[in-house]
Structures are given as structure tokens and as C-alpha cells.
From TrEMBL:
Organism listed in the record: Mugilogobius chulae
Descriptive protein name: Transport and golgi organization 2 homolog
InterPro entries membership: TANGO2
One Pfam family recorded for the sequence: TANGO2
Domain of life (superkingdom): Eukaryota
GO biological process, one term: Golgi organization
Amino acid sequence: MCIIFFKFDPRPASKNAYRLILAANRDEFYNRPSKAADFWGTNNEILSGLDQEYGKEGGSWLGINKRGKLAAITNYMEWRSNPDAQGRGFLVSNYLTENNGDSYSYLKKVSAEGHLYNGFNLLTAEFRAKQDTMCYYGNRGSTEPVHLKPGIYGLSNSLLDTPWKKLHQGKRHFTDVVSNLSLSCDGLVQELLGVLNNEELNGPDPVQELQGDGYSASMIKALTAVCVRTPHYGTRTNTVILIDAEGNVNFTERTMLNCDTTKWSTNSFQFKLHS
């Protein structure tokens, strides 16, 4: 399970505004091996965490490169999955390493192979000097990708903006934070980390329960929180990405250490997109 809130504003009204504000949680088994976010790839131009699970090494859940390409993925909540399906994390890594092709064309290609994967939602974006683009495709929804209009969105483990209670509450909190224009960059990051670490339960939620048919009642209950907590599974990475009007990127990752929910490390990266 994961959750992503983002505000897409390709033509911000002022130089102090942001073309993208994104706040995301990665939920996973605490003991699944992975690398914290860092630069990698040709000329170290890609910034992301990386999966190190056997057979899925090199996949990712969220990343950006210095050429302005960004991708993020969430799994689709479904009880039965195919253990032989292709690794979904490569959909993120492949987009970030691809030299040619735009975000929509990439999703169009992915949609033709969507049946090879377990359920997923994939966001792809390009932040360019002349035009910003964000697109979405979910292989349990429409067969066609869509271009996203400017606005505020929420994505969890159903289709984009499915009205789960946790998504509604988190999106409302996110909207309140990003509407506060008096916040500094650091202040905005801290407030968004607060959004991501809200452990309040938002159940019962009949819509989420219907999709999660087959899950235990205790697991369904735990999954109604924006920040998920169970003894062995839950939120283990928070990521905030800000892209301002001038192409400056602020990437902050807070990640769990040693499978211990009381121990965390926070790292921030700043760079300017290539024009």
C-alpha cells in the first residue's frame, strides 16, 4: 500500500510558487531490502530509492531525473496476485532512464503490456522549460492513459482520486497545507511530513473494504490510515518533492532504519533541472 498527494501547477502565478508539490508514503514490509534515495544512473542524473528484493533489484517506487522526468507508482489493492508477474518497480526506473519519448507515449506503451503486471497506478511527468506535462495510467481502469489538468490529486491503492476516506482526509489536509502561502520551503516540507505521518484511522470505509475483500479485518482497519502501522508492515518512507517556477528541485526523504519504527533518517537533495 502507498499514498501520494500532489498539486500540479504548470504555470505558477509567481516565482515563489511551485510547479509541483508532491508528498508520498511508501508502505512495505519493514524487512524488504531497499536503498534509500540517492543519485544513480548515467552521470548520476537520477534520484530515487531502489528496490533490492531478489529478482526486482533496481526497481523503484518514486524518482526524478535532472532532465525533468518524474515517475511514481502505487500498487492496486487486490487480494489475489500473480507471483510470476513482471516487477512493477521497473516501470518507474525504465521511464527515468529512457532518453527518448514523452510521458504520455511511455504510458501508452505500458498500457499495451498492462496485463503482464499485477494491479498498479503509474504517474509520469516532464518538467520542461516550455511546457510541463503529467499523465496517469492504471491497469485496473481505463485502457488509455490520461493527461492531467492543473489541480490537486490524491492516489492510493485504487484508481486516481477514488473516494476512500483516508484519501479524502489526507487530501483535505494536504490542500490546507499547500494553500498556506506564508510557509517557507523548509516549513512546507515539515508540514507535508506531518500530513504523511498521520496515523489516525479513517474506518470503517465500505468502499475500501469492498476492494480489500479477502484481507483480514485487522489489516483493513490498519490500512485506513494515511500512515500505516502494523508490527511487520507499514509506512517506511516519506518523500516530499518540490519544483519551483525556476526549475529548482527540493527532494526530501525520511526513511525508517533497521526495521525500527522509532528510528528514522532524513536526507534532502537540491538541484536545478537542465533547461
